[in-house]
TrEMBL record:
Alphabetical keyword list: Mitochondrion, Ribonucleoprotein, Ribosomal protein
Location in the cell: Mitochondrion
Full protein name: Large ribosomal subunit protein uL23m
Organism: Oppiella nova
Subunit structure: Component of the mitochondrial ribosome large subunit (39S) which comprises a 16S rRNA and about 50 distinct proteins.
Amino acid sequence: MSSRWYPRYVLGNPQLRVFLPDFWMVLQKPKHPLPPNQIQLKVPVYMTKWDVKNYLENIYKMPVINVTTRVRCGDIKRAKGKIYLIKEEDYKTAFVDLPKDTTFQFPDLFPKDRVNQLSKDLSDAEKEVEFGRLRERRKYYKNMRDNVPDWFQL
């Protein structure tokens, strides 16, 4: 299934080959609440239920009970500043059921204390940007006084 080319095995050399599938999976945050033992994944259209199950069991060592898939149509958008439309690629959404005793909690990527620290850093950066804008504005207006003599300009 893999399209990677590995060097041939030569007698006496250690065989360090790892075959990984050419699939990708993206963990999606569901729009509607799911049971605690169910996760939602975005996978390519050509990936089947069995591929999803084998991928999760063999690579991530997750016990999978059932996999349900749905093909989703890609969004149709208007190109910026153009007349024509652009259609994004279709994708498949996989709902994976885990055993009843396991619970999956979506990871908290932005904890509250980190968000507060980032907002404080951002406010300092915004102050610096605003100060730079004021300085540039002063330079601009200083050079715009054409109707006064040179000896009178600051």
